């Protein structure tokens, strides 16, 4: 009935009787950037496994359309291949070698690593590796990108820079994204919609939509406000009045 | 550069995960693989040790600490070496031993790595075969000498068999263990890019275990070189092991030492050769962490 890329209907997943996720219902529309935040142990990894099709729910229904590609926390690049060869993995369905070469070059230009095609991952910094990983994920035609805390292994400043980079890349090559993260700032700065999860078993506490156009500044009022609201939802921020909340929250 | 690999590992371990400031500033070519240059000490120290050993040997033989008939002087050994060289048979012995080790070792590698891969990727196969492999691995290959001779006689074949028995089981085990240690993320990435079957094996599993496999090849090649000497002493009519055994029967301790020196030198060269594999760019990553 819809053209959502992903649709979850009261999805639960438990392991040996212990619930990891409980009653998740949400949709991801084409072109949307959805972030999922929550405390550790809220079943983020389980959720990604379900979304990528690596795992099936104990109960409920998941519908998925189109091709999915995953961006991993770190070390998702094959260390025995150069940056260029790693990007080529995503282009191997292209028949013409000429096409592959030009696309690979375009992607390396896009991430600003033109001269690094022949460098191995271990010769690159963490930020550079993650940029190659993004380029590889954006290569070819993919409908949905799943990101598993893609910047969590980086230091704070590199992480800030990588957020801008990701926003820029998505501006150049729009994709539908589901970003799973524990970094609330990251979620609020990047996503159109932030899904806040509770601790184990993971349930959806609430959803926030951000209307401000991407890319955004970390200091944009809407972003900082969303951060504040999400923190208080998770019981971490300063308690604010009920009135205040219903005013500014869009469900 | 002896010991260089270890030093580099330690260096790397204390480096921070990533370098932020340099992240964008880096230009191609500014990344260089760290290398320990040839310092004077790295040359002088080993030479000093060698000189010390030679001096101690000279002193021990000069003052007849051991009976003269059982403790050759350095001079006698040099003379023995020249004598062997004149006859040319020493080259034949070296070739005979190397041939056996290379033959047996290559056989063990070509059968051991596939079996290790098979065991590593199939839990049921692993469950069935692992105890047996562990059993034979724990068994000294020298215990096979009686059967090696009974089944294969004297000459190349028993030695090749013993080398195979030396190298095969450790290679199987380390390949199998390396497969089990491959981070799951590589297989998930491979799945995302539609790798499967033989392609997965050749393009993901095999390259992922290469660093560990090469380490194991270094160890087992060294073991094989040790075992060939013992094998030839008993089941050979030529080769370096036989040279030593023959010299002992002829009461020529100087020639025993000649054999020992040649064996040691070739062992070091073999190890250096195999360790060159770790410099291959698509394998280096496993040692730079």
Describe this structure in words.
The complex is a heterodimer of chains A (251) and B (289). Chain A is α/β, with parallel strands linked by helices and 251 residues long. Chain A has two domains: 6-66 and 143-248, Rossmann fold (3-Layer(aba) Sandwich), CATH 3.40.50.300; 78-140, no CATH class. Chain A contains eight helices and nine strands. In chain A, strands 5-6-7-3-8-9 form a six-stranded mixed beta sheet, with helices on both faces. A three-stranded antiparallel beta sheet of chain A has the order 2-1-4, covered by helices on one side. In chain A, helix 2 (83-90) runs parallel beside helix 4 (126-138) and helix 6 (184-190) packs across helix 7 (221-233). Chain A is globular. Chain B folds into two domains: 40-71; 76-288, Orthogonal Bundle (MetI-like fold). Chain B contains 13 helices and no strands. Chain B has 289 residues and is an all-alpha fold. In chain B, helix 4 (74-87) crosses helix 12. Chain B is 77% helix and 0% strand.
Give a brief rundown of this model.
Chain A is built from eight helices and nine strands.
Features:
heterodimer; A: 251 residues; alpha/beta; Rossmann fold; 2 domains; six-stranded mixed beta sheet; three-stranded antiparallel beta sheet; 8 helices; 9 strands; 35% helix; globular; disordered C terminus; B: 289 residues; mainly alpha; MetI-like fold; 13 helices; 77% helix; disordered N terminus
